[in-house]
Automatic annotation (TrEMBL):
Belongs to the DNA photolyase class-1 family. The keyword Flavoprotein applies. Residues 54-184 form the Photolyase/cryptochrome alpha/beta domain. Keywords: Chromophore, FAD, Flavoprotein. SUPFAM superfamilies: Cryptochrome/photolyase FAD-binding domain, Cryptochrome/photolyase, N-terminal domain. The keyword Flavoprotein applies. This is Photolyase/cryptochrome alpha/beta domain-containing protein. Gene3D superfamilies: 1.25.40.80, DNA Cyclobutane Dipyrimidine Photolyase, subunit A, domain 3 (1.10.579.10), HUPs (3.40.50.620). The lineage of its organism: Eukaryota, Metazoa, Chordata, Craniata, Vertebrata. Coiled coil: none annotated. One of its GO terms (cellular component) is nucleus. It holds the Pfam family DNA_photolyase.
Length: 631
């Protein structure tokens, strides 16, 4: 937590903050400013306390915002002149991230927005192009700079930049102040509490957070008064160092992205989402729709990744909404839970060597993937450069997760791009919108247009192999191959598997269920499975629904009965393995059910069972505490 001691005094009618102590990850403690305090005599011989004020370059790196920007606030409070600077070091940016046209546009829009917002407070943003060290050397001397302030980041390339700036400071005689505000906590504190290494499972991570307490509280908003106390850059400088246009950087200006960059847009979107408090409190992921035409999640990730929005602000706004609600979803599936996933990956990434690579990454399974340069190139073009929210920690963490190389261990779950699409969006509306070249194919071909006849392809105005590529792999062959490979790798690298696996909370994987006859004459069914902790967020509620329905179908007791289904919270779960084994055999889909919060459980109403197969229900002690929740 940031603790601050303010000693207020009135100097020439202006209320000044004299002492601000930060313990929030600053590389130079603010206490050093105390040394600069002295007693001055002002007009009329009234003794005044004053301090040496800095001439500061505030270097924006990722935190492209004015709200919750602790280091900018500290810069303003300790300076008599402040130069807000963004160094557009193209070589640095392109070598450290795969930044494509969409993201360039987003970045330039964010800088333009920052410039406008600084203008409203009486300052401006100076965008200086060039290699960052040369730019700093040049301007430190030109502007007599005594301090550089910057946001502390955890990526190796940003850490290296900060270390270089520190070295430059020692050489040229300026101070450096950096503070963490891109994550909820200073991740170093989490590492310290975990004995110096990162917690490698979400469960362990939450445990450490419970010892740490709440995340850092956002700092106050900046005002015109804050900026008035410091001299702003001359208007001539603003003209000389204006935000470039895409064309200046030879970037295509036309962007299909509906996400406009910048703090202003980010805050507007945040407010929009928060007005729907019911949506916020019932948010459960992965019970969201990945291929809906409009995002079924917040879509705020590009703003968080560039720091146009503060995660701390979002976290506390959510806390306020939760505090007013009767029920709300919880981590790992809630909105706050999503921010904690982000924090989890930030923490692990901050202390894991080669986090974005397989080679030399100690938590990642070493898998002998295909070595096919052409396919790799195609994959990179599609996935990396088009990302608007590309983020070092989250991206690599989720790819490890998705490929079952770390964190996620149900490697037998393989998504088929054709079957997944057919199941979740049978008409292919998503494909028709985002791949308009395929839009005239009949729905039965929309996910596998290469199976359409030549005549049908002509009619759809799209010849596969000419207007649209053939599939890169045969899905069945590739998934069979990968399955075997993973099985073998996991046996050989058992110790690496265990690192991010976490302990099981139940040794058995036997499905268990209880049935309860309700006073209304209907039945309540509670269902659980061993090892809840991983089930809920790996399998998700959608599978709970399916499993419930499957068991109902399987149990003669419920034939022709109306049944109330309860989703039971921890420590109960459901099994996707059972689903995979049994569900396809039933040859039909589960009924659509609408969740209704009730008595702390999610309750599903009204599944009418018309068919039943014999299957015994097993009582299980884990279910007993939840029986009291049944009406
Ligand atoms: C293979 C793969 C790669 C990914 N790469 C990125 C990436 O480069 N940058 C990125 O921001 N997200 C990435 N994600 C995570 C996730 O898909 C996005 O954060 C999320 O979809 C963004 O949408 P949202 O802002 O609407 O999220 P919401 O569901 O509204 O969540 C709010 C915020 O929580 C955080 N969050 C949500 N999901 C995750 C998650 N799975 N892991 C960590 N943090 C999460 C994000 O900051 C997000 O903006 C990746 C996921 C996968 C499967």
């Amino acid at each position: 937590m940031i603790s601050r001691r303010f000693a207020d005094s009135h100097i020439c009618g202006v209320k000044k903050c004299l002492c601000t102590k930060w313990n929030s990850g600053s590389s130079i403690c603010f206490d050093s400013y105390l040394l600069g305090f002295g007693i001055l005599k002002a007009k009329g011989s009234i003794p005044l306390v004053a301090r040496m004020l800095h001439r500061t370059i505030h270097l924006f790196r990722k935190e492209l915002r004015l709200h919750d920007n602790p280091v900018l606030l500290a810069a303003l409070e300790s300076s008599e002149a402040l130069y807000p600077v963004y160094i557009l070091d193209t070589a640095f940016l392109t070598s450290s991230m795969h930044i494509g046209a969409l993201r360039w546009n987003f970045l330039l829009q964010s800088l333009e927005d920052l410039h406008k917002n600084l203008g409203k407070l009486g300052s401006c943003l100076l965008v200086i192009q060039g290699q960052y060290e040369l730019v700093l050397r040049d301007h430190i001397q030109k502007w007599n700079i005594t301090q550089v302030t910057l946001d502390a980041e955890m990526e190796p390339f940003y850490k290296e930049m900060e270390a270089n700036i520190q070295r430059l400071g020692a050489e040229l005689g300026f101070e450096v102040l950096s503070l963490v505000s891109h994550s909820l906590y200073n991740t170093q504190r989490i590492l310290d509490l975990n004995g110096g290494s990162p917690p490698l499972t979400y469960k362990r991570f939450l445990h450490i957070l419970s010892l740490l307490g709440d995340p850092e509280v956002p700092v106050r908003n900046l005002t015109a008064e804050d900026f008035q106390r410091c001299r702003a850059p001359d208007p001539g400088l603003a003209e000389c160092y204006r935000v470039p246009l895409p064309v200046d950087l030879k970037i295509s200006p036309e962007s299909l992205s509906p996400w406009r960059g910048g703090e202003t847009e980010g805050l507007q979107r945040l407010e929009q989402h928060l007005t729907d408090q019911g949506w916020v409190t019932s948010f459960t992921k992965p019970r969201t729709i990945p291929n809906s035409l409009l995002p079924s999640t917040t879509g705020l990730s590009p703003y968080f990744s560039m720091g146009c929005l503060s995660v701390r602000t979002f976290f506390y706004r959510l806390s306020n909404i939760y505090a007013q609600a009767k029920h709300h979803s919880l981590p790992p599936v809630s909105l706050q839970g999503q921010l904690l996933w982000r924090e989890f990956f930030y923490t692990v990434a901050s202390a894991t060597p080669n986090f974005t690579q397989m080679a030399g990454n100690p938590i990642c399974l070493q898998i002998c993937w295909y070595k096919d340069a052409e396919r790799l190139h195609k994959w990179k073009t599609v996935f990396e450069e088009l990302l608007l929210d590309a983020d070092y920690s989250i991206n690599a963490g989720n790819w490890m997760w998705l490929s079952a190389s770390a964190f996620f261990h149900q490697y037998t779950r393989i998504f088929c791009p054709v079957r997944f699409g057919k199941r979740t969006d049978p008409q292919g509306d998503y494909i028709r919108k985002y791949l308009p070249i395929l839009k005239n194919f009949p729905s039965k071909y929309i996910y596998e247009p290469w199976t359409a006849s030549e005549e049908e392809q002509k009619q759809a105005g799209c010849i596969i192999g000419q207007d649209y590529p053939f599939p890169m792999v045969n899905h069945k062959e590739a998934s069979d191959h990968n399955l075997q490979l993973m099985k073998q790798v996991r046996e050989e690298q058992h110790r690496t598997v265990q690192l991010t696996r976490g302990e099981r909370c139940c040794s058995t994987n036997i499905p268990c269920a209880v049935a309860h006859r309700l006073s209304s004459g209907t039945w309540a069914l509670g269902l659980g499975f061993g090892c809840f902790s991983r089930m809920l967020f790996h399998v998700g509620y959608e599978h709970h629904e399916q499993l419930f329905w499957l068991l109902l179908k399987c149990c003669p007791k419920f034939k022709n009965k109306s049944v109330t289904l309860f989703f039971l919270p921890s420590p109960l779960g459901a099994s996707s393995c059972l689903l995979q084994k049994c569900f396809p055999k039933t040859g039909s889909s589960p009924p659509a059910l609408t969740p209704q919060p009730q008595a702390g459980c999610v309750c599903l109403q009204g599944a009418e069972i018309s068919e039943a197969l014999p299957m015994p229900l097993v009582n299980h002690p884990y279910l007993h505490p939840y029986l009291s929740l049944l009406p």
